[in-house]
Write a structure and sequence with these properties.
This protein has helices at 2-14, 17-26, 32-66, 70-83, 89-103. By secondary structure, the chain is mostly helical. Helix 3 crosses helix 4 (70-83).
Length: 104
């Protein structure tokens, strides 16, 4: 019963023209810009976060103590939010999946 429902749902998704169009639009183009877009959006920020995430977070915490102005304080809070966890393996996995999809 459940297997049949899953099979029919998978069949519907596989043959859905709207899903095919959206996947075709989402697929990165096989150009230098497509490759650089994936690398710059997914890999470079994660490499920076893995290598210097603790240093960037410490710097932002120190600057938040000195800066009472709202726009700069918000900027340093965003830096802390981005880099306090270090790099994201999920983003690296998504980047590798997009690179694989780009070259297949």
């Amino acid at each position: 019963m459940i297997r049949e429902k899953i099979a029919t749902a998978a069949y519907r998704l596989k043959h859905n023209p709207a899903l095919r169009r959206s996947l075709a639009q989402m697929k990165p183009k096989k150009t230098v810009w497509g490759f650089l877009g994936i690398v710059l959006f997914f890999f470079v920020p994660e490499i920076i976060a893995f290598a210097w995430g603790a240093d960037i977070t410490a710097y932002a915490h120190a600057q938040m103590l000195d800066v009472p102005a709202e726009p700069l304080a918000t900027w340093y809070e965003l830096l802390v939010m981005l880099f306090e966890e270090g790099g994201s393996w999920l983003n690296l996995g998504i980047g590798f999946a997009f690179l694989l999809w780009l070259f297949l």
